[in-house]
Amino acid sequence: MISWATAKEVENDYFAIEKSIDGINFEEIAQVEGHGDYVGTLKYFYEDYNLISIAYYRLRQVDFNGDFKVYETKRVLRKEAAELSLQIYPNPSNGNNLNLLFAGTGWHSSFFVTVMDTSGKTRYKKEIRYENGFNHKFLLEQLDLEPGTYILQVNSKEKIHRSKLIVQGNIR
């Protein structure tokens, strides 16, 4: 849960909650209405249900006239962040493009992504290299997969991760 408090508000329209996977590129995920002009302590809360292992949050306070102030970035580390996690989206997919989000410290600087059909035939394979860190997002393009069920496998030096991938239609 994200929480903050104000002691006084002047012309406060709203708070924008911004989130990032890398601490650099932020995206607004919610707005919480401000109280205009108010003297006294007000407490605010927001629950982010789209959790990842490591995320960066910041608050942007916006006045009625559009002026704003961006507050300090905070890193939020979930307990399982030391473990690796892999998110694949969209899943179901269109068969062309797929995003992979690797989180945690268990991934090494190089790994292979393989997509296999249900008979075990390799339909896509790619080696991916990156700098060590916590969160990495990759776009796999031009997969050219027909509708059906596939297994997406990620092999690093010490770990193998498999996920089911559903392709509902190939949009070109």
Give a nutshell description of this structure:
The chain contains no helices and 12 strands.
Provide the low-confidence segments as ranges: none
Structure class = mainly beta
Helix content: under 10%
What is the N-to-C succession of helices and strands?
A: EEEEEEEEEEEE
How many helices? 0
Span between termini: 40 Å
Strand content: over 45%
Average predicted confidence as pLDDT:
84
Number-wise, the strands total 12
Radius of gyration: 21 Å
Shape assignment: elongated
What's the multimeric state?
single chain
The largest pleated sheet is described as: 5 strands, antiparallel
Task: Describe what this molecule looks like in 3D.
- The chain is mainly β and 172 residues long.
- The protein has no helices and twelve strands.
- The strands form three sheets. Strands 1, 2, 3, 4 and 5 form a five-stranded antiparallel sheet that branches. It has a four-stranded antiparallel sheet with strand order 9-8-11-12, with no helix packed on it.
- The model has no long low-confidence stretch (mean pLDDT 84).
What order do the helices and strands come in, and which of them pair?
Elements: E1 2-20, E2 27-46, E3 54-63, E4 68-70, E5 74-77, E6 85-89, E7 98-103, E8 110-117, E9 122-129, E10 135-140, E11 148-155, E12 160-167
Antiparallel strand pairs: 1-2, 1-3, 3-4, 3-5, 6-7, 7-10, 8-9, 8-11, 11-12
Which properties best describe this structure?
elongated, mainly beta, single chain, five-stranded antiparallel beta sheet, four-stranded antiparallel beta sheet, 172 residues
